[in-house]
Please model this.
Amino acid sequence: AQSVAQPEDQVNVAEGNPLTVKCTYSVSGNPYLFWYVQYPNRGLQFLLKYITGDNLVKGSYGFEAEFNKSQTSFHLKKPSALVSDSALYFCAVRDSNTGGFKTIFGAGTRLFVKA
Amino acid sequence: NAGVTQTPKFQVLKTGQSMTLQCAQDMNHNSMYWYRQDPGMGLRLIYYSASEGTTDKGEVPNGYNVSRLNKREFSLRLESAAPSQTSVYFCASSPTPDTQYFGPGTRLTVL
Model:
């Protein structure tokens, strides 16, 4: 079975500081991993994905994520946070072997960037 | 391009009433999905349609039915609404099973 965990309900960071939003996953096969962002009263927007290849994936708005197979993690990072990055972030996983069309989403982490 | 559109944006129902949530996409995507979002639980897949003419159950299909009317449209029906179905409902579409594009959501309250 597939599962994904986001251990932090909320992350607080000062503007200009680096940010990390954590994600760990569990799949029986090879993982396809995703990060999405949700702004208030909006649908989710795709940020980045890992399918195969380089473990460091770069995405929209300066975000990046590092795939770590041994730690089954896919943490989202940004070198310098902006107030406008404040939003709800979702990690998601699909098992490339058995997941079919089913993507499993984490519970979400709320990022608050203080000016 | 409008992307993924959903109607209505808000709806209040009484227990036992029925309604249909509409979703349409103009990106020529093969696959479409219905999710519900509840606080602290992320998004849970209700039903999906891998391609026109097919539908399959997701994690939480009980109490819902779907119709893939054509390639553009995928509707979600609540036959007899219950308070447990109070949620925000999102429709999404994708060209492959990977990157999904989401609509703005429908906020449903069942009294």
